[in-house]
Design goal:
The structure is a single chain. It is built from four helices and three strands. The protein has 102 residues and is α+β, with helices and mostly antiparallel strands. It has one domain (16-101). Strands 1-2-3 form a three-stranded antiparallel β-sheet. 23% of the residues are buried. The model is unreliable at 1-10 (pLDDT under 50).
């Protein structure tokens, strides 16, 4: 199981991070947005993997397009990037998780 973006039980990571749920769950990956989470389909994870080594500027629009399926969700992602830890650090954490999935 991947450790990138993994939240220890009861722990939290501020901002955006992925969590690997593993086999036996309908959604194997979830996206944490501060204290909320959104399930991410296998198809979306697969679509994001090719962008795992892109610059943050190239990755973010693709990420928002694939994961931000509603205006509310896109706003929450942008808010986490703007008010959480450094946006590039958060994006790097997401990309590291995706590289480990490849």
């Amino acid at each position: 199981m991947s450790g990138a973006g993994l939240r220890p039980e009861g722990g939290s990571v501020k901002g955006l991070s992925f969590e690997q749920r593993g086999e036996g769950h309908h959604y194997k990956v979830i996206l944490h947005i501060d204290h909320c989470y959104v399930p991410v389909s296998d198809d979306v994870v697969e679509a994001l993997i090719p962008y795992a080594s892109s610059s943050p500027e190239q990755f973010l629009p693709v990420f928002l397009d694939k994961v931000g399926y509603s205006s509310y969700l896109r706003e929450q992602i942008q808010a986490a990037l703007n008010h959480g830890p450094d946006a590039n650090t958060q994006i790097a954490r997401l990309q590291q998780f995706l590289r480990e999935q490849a």
